[in-house]
Amino acid sequence: MFNILIQVLYVVVTTYLIHILQFQLVNLSHCFSQLLCFSCFLISLQEKRQQILNEMRTLCEACCYPGLVEFQGAFYMPDSGQISIALEYMDGGSLADVIRVKKFIPEPVLSHMLQKVLLGLRYLHEVRHLVHRDIKPANLLVNLKGEAKITDFGVSAGLDNTMAMCATFVGTVTYMSPERIRNENYSYAADIWSLGLTILECGTGKFPYDVNEGPANLMLQILDDPSPTPPEDAYTPEFCSFINDCLQKDADARPTCEQLLSHPFIKRYLKTDVDLASYVKGVVDPTERLKQIAEMLAIHYYLLFNGSDGIWHHMKTFYMEQSTFSFSGNVYVGQNDIFDSLSNIRKKLKGDRPREKIVHVVEKLHCRANGDTGVAIRVSGSFIVGNQFLVCGEGIKPEGMPSLDELSIDIPSKRVGQFREQFIMQPGNLMSCYYISKQDLYIIQS
Question: What SUPFAM superfamilies does this protein's entry cite (predicted)?
Answer without folding.
Answer: NTF2-like, Protein kinase-like (PK-like)
